[in-house]
Amino acid sequence: MIILCFSIGSRATLRAVQARWKREVETHFNYDERLPVLLLGLQRDLRREGDAQCVWPHEGLNVAQEMRCDRYAECSAGSGELCALVMEDVVRMAVGTVRAGGGRSVAEYCVAM
Question: CATH class for domain 2-112?
């Protein structure tokens, strides 16, 4: 399983995932597309209304769909918000990689938690 992370409080980190890290993962780790990929927004507690640097859930989900990620999720370690749900989803996805089919969305969408 591959988890690509960015800070919800910084659009630049999401752009970095799109521009660099996704290509690195596909080139070096997931060339056969069998590993599921999760795009994870961190520091959810930093999101503020009116802050142009913040990434909103629909924006993160759109990027995850464009990158053909299997899942998109957000959490905050600072407040503990959604951490347990994200960990459960990570475990479910990791267990799914033991099947012959592996991961990676075939459809034009991904699932948001």
Answer: alpha beta
